Amino acid sequence: MRSVRQTASRLIATVALVVAGLGTVPAAAHGAEHPTESATQVSGFWACSVPSGYTYSSVRRELGVCSPSGFANSYYVVAPSDGIWTCTVPYGYTYSSVRSQLSVCSTSGFANSYYLRVPQTGIWACTVPPGFSYTDVRRQLAVCTPNGFANSYRLVG
Q1: Residue 83 reports pLDDT greater than 50
Q2: Is 47 helix (H, G, I), strand (E, B) or coil?
Q3: Which of 44, 51, 123 is nearest to 84 (CA)?
Q4: Residue 18, domain member (yes or no)
């Protein structure tokens, strides 16, 4: 019970720092060993739409950039790859962690980011992609859903 209280206290403190803009969410808060790189550390480009075969890691709303007469969204477009945080899960990928962040994948509040993984035997994933099955399942807090418990699956395929 004490470790649950300590974990909850750490999560509350982390959320307070992140909301205040004074810190980043540590990987341990997600119950996984995933790095917490920012969108700018992933090589990409800003665009008015996301081309087929790509995903995006951030969105912003700007005046006169993607619309000549008003505000419109711009997307930080990245090529999908194993081990990056993105706002969508492209076809052929799965994810092993999810986090909810303010003003990263949505211009109007909180939205989920996903830690992309190339499906392969032996990894823990939040979904079982086509062509794969799983050999084990575990239910974890704040790993495959930003709040609450959800299943992770050890893939085999």
Answers
A1: yes
A2: strand
A3: 44
A4: no
